Amino acid sequence: MEWTGLQSTYSYTERDVALYALGIGACASNAVDQDELKYVYHEDGQQFIKVLPTFAALLTLESLPNGFDLPGLQYDPRLLLHGQQYIELYKPFPSSCHIQNKVSLAGLHDKGKAAILEIETKSYEKESGDLLCMNRTTVYLRGAGGFSKSSKPFSYSNYPPNQTPAALLYRLSGDYNPLHSDPMFAKVAGFSQPILHGLCTLGFAVRAIIKSICKGDSDRIKSITGRFLLHVYPGETLVTEMWLEGSRVIYRTLVKERKRTVLSGSVGLSGLNSSL
């Protein structure tokens, strides 16, 4: 199966940056939290606000507006599940920017009754041409397998208070998949109600790492891996546990009410003080 890839653009403003931060819980428990206020407000003007590292995942939203259109691959988009996200960060994001994306097929794996698809997106600052980040998105396509021999998918992975409207708030950052807002759509996909975006859960987890390990300095984050293990319902309480191993944080996020792990992965760091 061949796919030539595509290019797309994505633009964001200071308002988008602040809305995203609020969507993953920044300042939710304390509106003047000095560690997180910088993501939504700056005394010298909004052009100086900081961009959270997981904002990078939003840059892929415009890359595939009509789903994954691959010749010969048939699937029901209602049965698509986001399996894993890997992000590499090469330089801090400006508070507003015009982005040029280059998208390529990184892997397609037949798992019998399903297929695993890996899409790689490199995002460049349009004006300077600088490479800002790379996203590798892994999706699980139920009912789309059976087209070839099975293969092992590529993987980078090594093994706060609840917010009931979290999915509705997060979708304002651009991910309007009805799985996260439409009760009937969610039931067709096999869930009792709309579920939280996996990237929203990832945002909550990385925020916890920035606050606990990085002492509020998000520029220390250089890479992020998140494997989505189980769905989260809006209103459930997320608890992130983390372990520092050299320049890497191993973490897992659990739903307190069900005592189940919903996300696991690692975060690569730079510039950590040896006393941490």
TrEMBL record:
It holds the Pfam family MaoC_dehydratas. One of its GO terms (molecular function) is enoyl-CoA hydratase activity. InterPro entries: HotDog_dom_sf (IPR029069), MaoC-like_dom (IPR002539), MFE-2_N (IPR054357). One of its GO terms (cellular component) is peroxisome. One of its GO terms (biological process) is fatty acid beta-oxidation. Residues 167-259 form the MaoC-like domain. Residues 10-143 form the Peroxisomal multifunctional enzyme type 2-like N-terminal domain. This is Enoyl-CoA hydratase peroxisomal-like.
